[in-house]
Task: structure prediction
Amino acid sequence: QVQLVESGGGLVQAGGSLRLSCAAAGIVFSSSTMGWYRQAPGKQRELVATLNPGGRTNYADSVKGRFTVSRDNAKNMVHLQMNTLKPEDTGVYYCNAATFLGADYWGQGTQVTVSS
Result:
């Protein structure tokens, strides 16, 4: 059974930092592209950052230079370091795994709220 469990969300003031983590189970983690997406109230879910097995990253323009995605293949975990947070970063952040077999999995999400 595939499980993606996010942690690390919370309430932070603008300019602050948070680190999100996602623990994965039931997938071949080292061969999967791991990603973070977010959904703000009333908006569609959008890509924040992805990290493929080869180490290539992809970031939304709105977070470039502020967010960093990383992975620990030994622990089957992916992290999202978020610095200089802005109120517009508020939303539910979801962990995603795209496996080499073409399957797509999502975590339950963790709330991030940035106050102004």
Remarks:
- The mean pLDDT is 97.
- The first strand starts at residue 3 and ends at 7.
- The two ends are 40 Å apart (CA to CA).
